[in-house]
Amino acid sequence: MEDIIEVENLTKKFGHFTAVDNVSFKVKKGEIFGFLGPNGAGKSTTIRMLTTLLRPTSGRARIAGYDLEAQQDQVRRYIGLVAEKIILYDRLTADENLQFFGRLNNLKPAVIKERSDRWLRRLGMEEWRNHQVGTYSTGMKQRINVVRALLTEPDILFLDEPTLGLDPQTSRLIRDFIAEVNETGATVILTTHDMHEAETLSDRVAIIDCGKIITLDTTENLKKMVKNISNPTFEDVFLTLTGNTVRDIASSRITSASRRWHGRPTNRVR
Amino acid sequence: MKEIISHIWQIAKKDLIEFSRDRIRLVTFVIMPIFMMVLTGFIFPSQTTLKDVPIGIARLDNDQISEQLIKALKNLSMKDSQPAFNVKTYQSEDEVKEGIKKQEISGGLIVPEDFSTKLAANGQAQIIIIEDQANPQISAITTQVLEQVVNTFSQQIGTQKVGYLLQKEKVVPSGEAAEKTALAFLKPITTKLLGLIEGETNYFEFVAPGIMAMVVMTAVMTGLAGSVSREKEQGTLDGILISPISRLAIILGKATSQSIRGLAQGVIVLILAILLFGVKIYGSLLLVFLLLILGIFSFVGLGILVSASAAEQETATQILFMFQFPMLFLSGVFFPIQQMPKIMQQISHLVPLTYAIEALRKVMILGAGLTDIRTELIILFSFGLITLAIAMPLFRRMITR
């Protein structure tokens, strides 16, 4: 399978602090690639670099065959982003937001309309499309936000903690939707510290801590790495690799993540 | 190119829709220029006229002649036939000085004891004018008017005396001709004041173009920086930045929406000035708009620089305030820069606002044409071009650190 993202020795320093430290990995076309790590591990920084929003201090990356540094505009044509903060204007309606971002991506109004119709219906947001986004709940905003990221039908979809702070219903809806989008051929890069989100969605997971990738493999193989616990959960894998020490606010979220979730089959490596 | 223009317009349109739905911002947008106009229009004294200014007079001489002088002062009226002075009577020079100290009066006039005796003896009499140094602006006009009144009065007495002499010595036959000749002797040269436009101008006509330029340009600068840093903070800027559009389109889109808003505010100021304060525009309205647009253009680069360098809205506001405050005084919005010391005048000519205001005054008050403000137009345009050329690459670098 062809590699759609190739990252080589990517590093980002903010002053003396190294947020991403010499990271290298490859993402195959069509896979869901999970980035798992505690808060402040460097997940978001990596995503921001790969989406042209941050300039790497050193290292190289090719996205969809284009050089991240030299061919930013071409790279931008192939990516969609759901960032930490919701990229929507509160005083614009859902439709206006989608039209605005669609037009910036050189889509014709009719095309934007057709695509948003389809996805708004799928995500149950059709009747709200003419309301200002500021009146929505977080879950509603995030659904529109995902539609926005998909407008260009990007080859690569970057999702930075897409279900953070959402209720179980919306999280489930969005996860299912991500899987559907992936079925149509889009490559998905997903950051999360939600264990079962990483486990159920990802084909392969990179566990990142302190700016470095500690390990990178399929979820099944990662589980095999834990020798001292019989029938380990994915959380056991994570804690074994990143240690039990509580760091800042990261820990509370990690330990509260649900232990088992028997949902969709997890082994979708192609 | 067509694509860039379309992107610029998309961003500008989005900004304007957002703005039009924000009631609070909309209200302040309209109220701010109204405040500026009303405050400056009503608070600043109209410097050419005096109205009911309290002055103190101590007449230590009891003659008829000094009484006539006091009467002339009391009856003195300016434009709208209101008395210029509100005359209070005091008994001595010290009492007048005390009155000024207590700020009961804004100046004083002393007629010394020997005033009429000296005049009767064909000597030179003296009137003492006391100024209120705590209040230089009012005092300057007050003393000037007092001196004028005394001079006119003195001239009348002189004319009478010389006329009498001429008649006595039979230089001229009649009494009437005698006074005419006497006046010609005493004041052989007269002056005539001629303006470029009809009627009188007031201080407000001087201030209005300055306020207009200032409101428009600061609005564009703060608006631009605020809008970029707000989007940075909210995260929506990321959505624009990951679109495959020219970085130039992003900043020009923002600049366009801010310029449209700035112009709208300029129009509000202009309408208020015309309706509320009777300001007349003697030059071409089209030229006024051209100047405003060029003025805005000259500030866009600075606005971009601030917005690119400030990560947060608050920082942007602080940087802007640092720029705006000195600019307000340097650009001659409220006082003519010709009154400033040489060095400050030179500094003030580094500020583009100065040129915009000078040119606007020429057009609005003096009816100047395109050729008269050529220099200012060129300077504004070049300033804009240079700052933009510096700001654009910096913006590109700073938004993606």
Helix content of chain A: 25-40%
Number of alpha- plus pi-helical segments of chain B: 15
Q: Which pair has the most extensive contact?
A: A-B, 29 and 23 residues
- Beta content of chain A: 15-25%
Globular, elongated, flat, extended or rod-shaped: what is the shape of chain B?
elongated
State the helix count of chain A.
10
The poorly predicted ranges of chain A are 248-270
> Mean pLDDT score of chain A, rounded?
86
Multimeric state of these chains? heterodimer
Helical percentage of chain B = 55-70%
Counting helices, strands and paired strands, the structural category of chain B is: mainly alpha
* Strand residue content of chain B: 5-15%
- Based on Cα principal axes, name the global outline of chain A: globular
CATH class annotation of the domain at 3-78 and 154-256 in chain A: Alpha Beta
The topology string of helices and strands of chain B comes to HHEHEHEHEHHHHHHHHHH
Q: In whole angstroms, how far apart are the ends of chain A?
A: 8 Å
Keywords:
heterodimer; A: 270 residues; alpha/beta; Rossmann fold; six-stranded mixed sheet; four-stranded antiparallel sheet; 10 strands; 36% helix; B: 401 residues; abc type-2 transporter like fold; four-stranded mixed sheet; 15 helices; 4 strands; 68% helix; 5% strand
